[in-house]
Amino acid sequence: MKLSIAYSLLVLSLDAKLILAEFNFVNSDISTLLSNKQKLQAGDPEMVSAFRALMVRAQKALKTQTAPTKDIHDYVSLARYYWPDKRKRNGLPYVKKDGFPNPEVKKILDYKLLHDLISDTRDLGFAFFFTGHNKYATKAISNLESWFLDEQTKMNPNLNFASMVKGRRTGRRTGLLDMRTIGDLLDALPILQKSPDWEQQHTEGMQSWFTSYLDWLENTPFRSEEQGSLNNHGTYFDYQYISIALSLGRNDLVIATAQNATIRRIAAHITPQGIQPEEVKRPNSWGYSVFNIHGLCLLARSAKLASVDLWNYSTSDGRSIRTGLNYLIPFALGKAKWPYKDVPKNGTLNEFVEILEIARGAYTDPIYLNAYNLLHQKFPPKVNYNRLMVS
Description:
By secondary structure, the chain is an all-alpha fold.
């Protein structure tokens, strides 16, 4: 892949400015990004393939409308596994049927729009980083303005009405999971800040919104139950909290959470054999086991940016992220039969490949690269340009 001199000068200028960014990376390491950009410029086949995948997503994101609804500022979503109570004439309040998603949740668009915003911001931000073309940043900044800065459309910095059950008036603590991937959006801010379209009001507005949201997250009654959960909800609470704290430069909060809550979580979530007890109880036990170990890997990657090593943490009896990951590999490869409800299948295997993509850069053990090589062609990760972000 041959790049022009003008392109090279443009992206090198952007690279130099990134060192002084006011927002911090959440998932990415700047040295890895710069190294991978050099590999891309040199025509590395893996990087070129990932770059092309990024461009497909970024071109789509340029055309996507992700603005929130204009008549409401509160984010609202419905509980996924709740259905009308057949014993009640009006069906209210809804009752839980674990493992059976109710299609009604799609009628309220906030969840989809939020997740489109998060993925589009990431795609557009990294397209700007790897190409230097400002059109990607322009679109991303416009989306951020609609969601977080414009007084007419911006979302209130809370999830008070997330995961609502019909027949009840407020959201639930499980709704905090809706913001679990916010780190993908925050990871783009250090890059977008270097666009000529980014102004001081954007910095101040984004810092203000996420500071307010972090304050809400720390003080909401939902926090104690959600952070105390011994399943994926607790994992993704930590990841969300650490992501925002990292972005805002609050490494003290990152370190305190990772060294206390997350370390206890690893010990509680994973047995010495690598089983995740709370996840294998679920009707879709494989999917949730993958989902939780994915969250723990994301946590480890982010905590490392604050010099906390969760990748290699282990209890005296061998409970660790590595143990949990190693337990799943034979089932993903089809070398063993999953002994619980559910089976490894498309979608969850694609997510597992994404985990392996992260793990291959975190561990020197070839088991992760070997498993990745065996699976990634048939089950490509959903975000198929992650190779640009990992070593």
